[in-house]
Design goal:
Layout lengths: L2 H15 L6 H11 L16 H15 L6 H13 L8 H11 L8
């Protein structure tokens, strides 16, 4: 199995473990959009207890990539995603971003 396929498989397992259905095509597109960072031990994970990390998710992904306007709804969506993944110690960036894409209905960016 390729390293990419392993990331997708682990992501599907993580989403399934919290009861989230998976659109594999979208998940694959989000993973491809993250590039080589999904293979690096540190960058492949979101440190949800680190405010600086969550600010990077907000600024670089939600505002930079998805084109959303800054506001309290972005912080609320990040907090909701953290709650959804509660109990998972190693939150995969692919999974975290996938949930945010779905939350804001931005699937078209990846089609």
């Amino acid at each position: 199995m390729s390293a990419f396929a392993e990331v997708i498989e682990k992501s599907i397992e993580q989403l399934s473990s919290v009861g989230v259905g998976v659109d594999e095509a979208l998940l694959t597109a989000v993973a491809k959009g993250l590039g080589p960072s999904i293979y690096n031990q540190d960058s492949s994970l979101v440190a949800s207890s680190d405010p600086e990390e969550l600010a990077r998710v907000k600024n670089n992904f939600l505002i930079g990539k998805l084109g959303l306007e800054d506001g309290p709804d972005l912080d609320a969506a990040i907090a909701e995603t953290v709650v959804t993944l509660k109990g998972i110690n190693r939150k995969l960036r692919v999974v975290f971003y996938y949930l945010l894409v779905k939350k804001f209905g931005k699937e078209a960016i990846y089609s």
